[in-house]
Amino acid sequence: MTFHAKKMTVVVALSATTAFANEVRVYNWSDYIDERLLSKFEEETGLDLIYDVFDSNEVLETKMLAGGSGYDVVVPSGTFLQRQIQAGAFQPLDKSKLPNLENMWDIIESRTAQYDPDNAYSINYMWGSTGIGVNVGKVSELLGEDVDRSSMDLVLKPANMEKLAECGVHFLDAPVEIIPMVLQYLGEDPDSHDVDVIAKTEAVLMGVRPYIQKFHSSEYINALANGDICVAVGWSGDILQARDRAAEAENGVEIEYHAFAEGSLMWFDQMAIPEDAPNPDGAHVFLNFIMDAQNMADASNYVYYANGNLASQPLLAEDVIGDTAIYPDEATLENLYTTTPYPANTQRAVTRLWTRVKSGTWAAVVQESGRHVRPQSVLRFTNGRSHVGTCFCALGRPQRNAADPIQKRHQTLRRVQRNWWSDSQHIFAWVFRASRPLRLWQDHVNAHACRVWNTDPRHNRAGGRGYCIGPGKPAAR
Ligand code: N2P
Questions:
Q1: What average pLDDT score do residues 272-299 get?
Q2: Whether domain 21-128+267-337 has CATH 3.40.190.10
Q3: Average pLDDT over residues 178-204
Q4: What does the pLDDT average to over 111-131?
Q5: Which CATH number does the domain 129-265 belong to among 3.40.190.10, 3.40.470.10, 3.30.70.1170, 3.40.50.620?
Q6: 32 CB under 6 A from ligand 1?
Q7: Which of 32, 33, 75, 270 to mutate to test the pocket of ligand 1 (most atoms within 8 A of CB)?
Q8: What is the Å distance from ligand 1's center to 259 Cα?
Q9: Among 55, 177, 219, which residue has the most ligand 1 atoms within 8 Å of its CB, making it the best to mutate?
Q10: Which of 100, 225, 310, 355 could lock 245 by a disulfide, CB 3.0 to 4.6 Å apart?
Q11: Which residues make beta-bridge pairs with 122?
Q12: 0.85 cut: is pTM over it?
């Protein structure tokens, strides 16, 4: 029996190896290749290509760190690649099997070497920026023709977002791109790893959270093109693809992409071979195929992202090589920043912050006892053991005036949930959920954000009642 079982294992293993030798399994970003290249690869090499897609570095990272993904080629962005190389997730490239490496562009290689020294584990596939896609007609209608459509003000100022919520705004579900963006907006180092500095982004994001319809990293292409949304914080080539899809549909939707006037993130997506890839030879064949000048030009011409292949440049369409949103000129390049991987403690704080921002269901908290709260506070509400929400608080005695925004805001609340929360230091609050976005207070609240860490009675002197607004539900559409 034992012998039999062993024999069977050997047979299974052999046939699996044979199957893997004919197959290459590639895991790439969605909307990131001209699919004709996939069949061309199979025709030219006789290998079967299994091509899956993802839209999030975090999803890919989970697979890479767990191991056993079954993929031969994957495409993390530089900062993720660096961390995964350190975790032993990739195997070094066998450069003798990659003659087309000579086509690569030294300028991009020197940049990607910051994540992958000597480019020992990866080749650049494409690179781009994270900026803003706008539906020109809708945004001009809601914010005026003269509004600066390349400014982060569009998506980080509550007053603008309140208006744009009407036509729909998506943000990337990419914390390590959105947080640097908000830091840049705040005039901080976008690559800060300091958790206290990073914490400053929460107030800004919570201030616009009620107006963000969705955090998603691929739906926005069609949503922009169809006119289902009017603004997306997204990736350069994706938004340019939306522009083309709208033009092809002749639906009257005009989409623009802008790197942010305040500065945009520049990132590099790198093809690498997992340490446990079933078919590393096939993976090298695929990488070499991708580095062919014509193939790489075809890919960029289709997806509107720049690539790291110098030899492909004469073969690029004019609306690709000639567009500074894709191939930045010196001036554009100066306004792009890069980031480095977060150490574990920063990453944990970022992940938690992002979860709070995305879930964003604490609509409003009215601090009834209030006396322990300083004016102009951001309150962290806890249930005694763990943090349950953050709200942005402006303190003051409500004036007995019907026009007072505090009292008006009260009228916009439908009390669907009421709880007392308390921690060991007696924070008491009523927790409400809003029936609709809290319009009156967003600007005011944002202008008054700061923090209270505890309920030390010495701080009680401020007195009065605190009115706090946290993130609401996305605007109903
Ligand atoms: C393709 C998105 C790739 C850019 N849809 C993200 N690194």
A1: 98
A2: yes
A3: 93
A4: 98
A5: 3.40.190.10
A6: yes
A7: 32
A8: 15
A9: 55
A10: 225
A11: 272
A12: no
Which atom of ligand 1 is closest in space to residue 77's alpha carbon? Answer: 7
Q: For residue 467, what pLDDT is reported?
A: 34
CB distance 29 to ligand 1 below 6 Å: yes
Ligand 1 pocket, residue 171 CB under 6 Å: no
Structural tokens at position 29:
């970003």
Q: What tokens does 200 get?
A: 């400053």
Model confidence at 108: pLDDT above 90 = yes
21-128+267-337 and 129-265: identical CATH topology: yes
Residue 185 CB-half CA count within 13 A: 23
CA distance 365 to 32: 43
Which of residues 293 and 456 earns the better pLDDT score? Answer: 293
- Tokens representing 432 are 């409400």
Query: Is 77 touching ligand 1 by the criterion CB < 6 Å?
Result: yes
Q: Does residue 13 or residue 448 have the better pLDDT? A: 13
User: Does 202 sit in the ligand 1 pocket, CB within 6 Å?
Assistant: no
Domain coordinates in residue numbering, the chain: 21-128+267-337, 129-265, 360-469
Percent helix, strand and coil across the chain, each to the nearest 5: 45, 20, 35
With CA atoms as reference, report the closest residue to 179 among 232, 233, 218: 233
Calculate what percentage of the chain has a pLDDT beyond 90: 65
